[in-house]
């Protein structure tokens, strides 16, 4: 295979260089953007590598053996990540999710979890630390992660059928190993455990009801996610999206459901519970029903760029500031300024002009780099 021009696909080298502010300001525990959305959640990608090649995320044709993943010194160190997290918490972040790539491939991740678990909100509360993983090595790591202070884990699982799952992860990884990881995570007390199933029409939508049935009456909360047009390499098309309304209708026809009110404002998942008391499911309708109006999420890429939207084409290079000797006060001021200027509402705009946004010509950031 010939080398792939990754700069054309993953524009991590083209980022906004932010000036170091001359005047600094103190964090107040609340910073809001141009649409009055507070900064509340932080997702941190700890590696751009993964042992899966999910067709909707890291297709093999792009992320093949010649793909240039980042060198170790390009990655933020645990100290750098914790520094950004601490400043974010001072601005009002209450939830931190570690993601990737596959976060459990980052060596010593439990040390980072312990460092983050020591953070406190301005009024002295613990920060909610969570992790999204493909579950492949969860059985090995669950206890250490729990001991380090991890609270919750979300495990991705796209099918219970081995052939379907292997075709979707594209590395022939078996379902049974992920299910075992789930069991171990549950037994060590990580919870509530959520399961993410990304739906791609014609690939795994035939398994919707089987998945629902399997996880009904268990401690696990299954969530169905619409296939998103994130990145520039997953060949997204609207026809491959299974709308959440269809998911709910298909399950409801066999296992009656009723809608439940959200746990908190800004929750991305809409909740439904089984009428017979068998637990609940969630649907994440990122494509058919945007939730930009309440989006309070910032993302830090593996190499320390701050993105204010999953569909951004440009990040703000916080690593350059940190490695250039920026003080905490300066970094804090930069982060507040970036958030205050935020106007992102990609999904809302997409709903009103599908096609037009993709035609803009700008390369978008890949999910494995920015963290889902
Ligand atoms: N490797 C970990 C995993 O798979 O859970 C964490 C990173 S992955 C990028 C985070 C989440 O994004 C996963 O639940 C994955 O299924 C989801 N995801 C990736 N690409 C997606 C896409 N194009 N549309 C919707 N969800 C996607
Ligand atoms: Fe890897 Fe997660 Fe992307 Fe699948 S969704 S390729 S497991 S990063
Ligand atoms: Fe948030 Fe951007 Fe997604 Fe809208 S499109 S919900 S602003 S990440």
Automatic annotation (TrEMBL):
[4Fe-4S] cluster 2 binds at residues 292, 295, 309. Residues 34-267 form the Radical SAM core domain. Pathway: Cofactor biosynthesis; molybdopterin biosynthesis. Keywords: 4Fe-4S, GTP-binding, Iron, Iron-sulfur, Lyase, Metal-binding, Molybdenum cofactor biosynthesis, Nucleotide-binding, S-adenosyl-L-methionine. It catalyses: GTP + AH2 + S-adenosyl-L-methionine = (8S)-3',8-cyclo-7,8-dihydroguanosine 5'-triphosphate + 5'-deoxyadenosine + L-methionine + A + H(+). One of its GO terms (molecular function) is metal ion binding. PROSITE patterns: MOAA_NIFB_PQQE, RADICAL_SAM. InterPro entries: Aldolase_TIM (IPR013785), Elp3/MiaA/NifB-like_rSAM (IPR006638), MoaA (IPR013483), MoaA-like (IPR040064), MoaA_NifB_PqqE_Fe-S-bd_CS (IPR000385), MoaA_twitch (IPR010505), MoCo_biosynth_MoaA/MoaC (IPR050105), rSAM (IPR007197). Pfam families: Mob_synth_C, Radical_SAM. Its cofactor is [4Fe-4S] cluster. S-adenosyl-L-methionine binds at residues 56, 101, 156, 228. The keyword Lyase applies. Monomer and homodimer. HAMAP family: MoaA_B. This is GTP 3',8-cyclase.
């Amino acid at each position: 295979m010939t080398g792939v021009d990754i700069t054309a696909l993953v524009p991590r080298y083209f980022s906004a260089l932010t000036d170091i502010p001359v005047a600094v300001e103190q964090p107040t525990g609340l910073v809001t953007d141009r649409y009055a959305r507070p900064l509340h959640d932080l997702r941190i990608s700890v590696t751009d590598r993964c042992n899966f090649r999910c067709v909707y995320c890291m297709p093999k044709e792009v992320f093949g053996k010649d793909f240039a993943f980042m060198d170790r010194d390009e990655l933020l160190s645990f100290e750098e990540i914790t520094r950004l997290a601490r400043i974010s918490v001072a601005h009002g972040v209450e939830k931190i999710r570690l993601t990737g790539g596959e976060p459990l491939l980052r060596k010593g991740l439990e040390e980072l979890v312990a460092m983050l678990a020591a953070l406190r909100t301005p009024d002295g509360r613990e920060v909610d630390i969570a992790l999204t993983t493909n579950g492949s090595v969860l059985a090995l790591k669950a206890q250490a992660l729990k001991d380090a202070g991890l609270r919750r884990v979300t495990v991705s699982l796209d099918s219970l059928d081995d052939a379907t799952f292997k075709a979707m992860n594209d590395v022939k990884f078996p379902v049974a190993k992920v299910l075992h990881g789930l069991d171990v995570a549950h037994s060590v007390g990580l919870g509530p455990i959520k399961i993410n199933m990304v739906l791609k029409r014609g690939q795994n939508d035939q398994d919707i009801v089987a998945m629902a049935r399997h996880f009904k009456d268990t401690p696990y909360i299954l969530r169905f996610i619409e296939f998103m047009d994130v990145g520039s390499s997953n060949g997204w098309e609207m026809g491959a999206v299974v709308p959440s309304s269809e998911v709910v209708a298909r399950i409801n026809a066999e296992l009656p459901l009723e809608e439940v009110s959200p746990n908190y404002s800004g929750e991305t998942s809409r909740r439904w519970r089984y009428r017979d008391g068998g637990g609940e499911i969630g649907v994440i309708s990122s494509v058919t029903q945007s939730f930009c109006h309440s989006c309070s999420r910032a993302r830090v890429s593996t190499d320390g760029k701050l993105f204010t939207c999953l569909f951004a084409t440009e990040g703000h290079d916080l690593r350059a500031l940190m490695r250039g000797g920026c003080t905490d006060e300066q970094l804090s001021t930069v982060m507040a300024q970036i958030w205050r200027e935020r106007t992102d509402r990609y999904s809302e705009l997409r709903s009103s002009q599908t096609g037009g946004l993709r035609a803009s010509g700008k390369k978008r950031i890949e999910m494995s780099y920015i963290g889902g």
